[in-house]
Amino acid sequence: MRIKINITVNRAVQIMLLYLAVSVAADSLLAPLFAVFVTGYIAGATLKTVGFALAIYAISKSILQIPLARFLDKHSGERDDFYALIAGAALIAIYPFLLLTISKTTHLYLLEILAGFGAAFLMAAYYSLFARHVDKGSEGFEWSLFSVGGLTMSSAVGGAIGGILADTFGFQPILIINGSINLIAFFILFSLYPLLDGARPKALPPFTPIPKNPATKQ
């Protein structure tokens, strides 16, 4: 007896989930090894440097993300959210390449401010767009895909691969791979543009199309 599982996830959500999974996996190549990278490759850096760098990133992100999210919420339509999303994704993509160029702790701190701003732009817009495009009746399922597929599993895969690559090739290849994958993910986001402001085209395989509702515009 065959059991048919009907999964309906619209294309906009698929694109955002794909971007998040790819980007988080790329970032996780380095994230578990960040302290080793900083103390081993930046002159005079210590574990205190790592702590300050992470704090600067978190503070920079926190200061900007909430007022930016409020600003985006006050403007109708999704174009402004999309442009903020693209700006954040671009900063996230160049961050690993810039890590290759730094040699002082001050460089690292400035770069962490930039990374924090990038994450603020990205996530303020991402949450807004994702929430608007989640399918009614599938909220728990699609937010779970966001959590498990976009964050948890991709982090696990990236962390495991990153450890193997660092042990075999060192940190430079990891940063190059990280940046290159994030660039690919950046271009994935452009396929989201035609789907803004309520567009709901047929879902892509392996997901089944969303049943049409005559009372709503498809």
Description:
The chain has seven helices and no strands. It has a single domain, classed as Up-down Bundle (Growth Hormone, Chain: A). Helix 3 runs parallel beside helix 5 (105-133). The protein has helices at 11-28, 34-41, 47-73, 79-99, 105-133, 139-169, 171-188. 33% of the residues are buried. By secondary structure, it is mostly helical.
Strand content: under 5%
The name of the CATH superfamily reads MFS general substrate transporter like domains
Number of continuous helical runs: 7
Number of domains: 1
Structural class: mainly alpha
Runs in which pLDDT lies below 50 for 5 or more consecutive residues are 201-218
Oligomer type: single chain
Q: Under CATH, the topology is which?
A: Growth Hormone, Chain: A
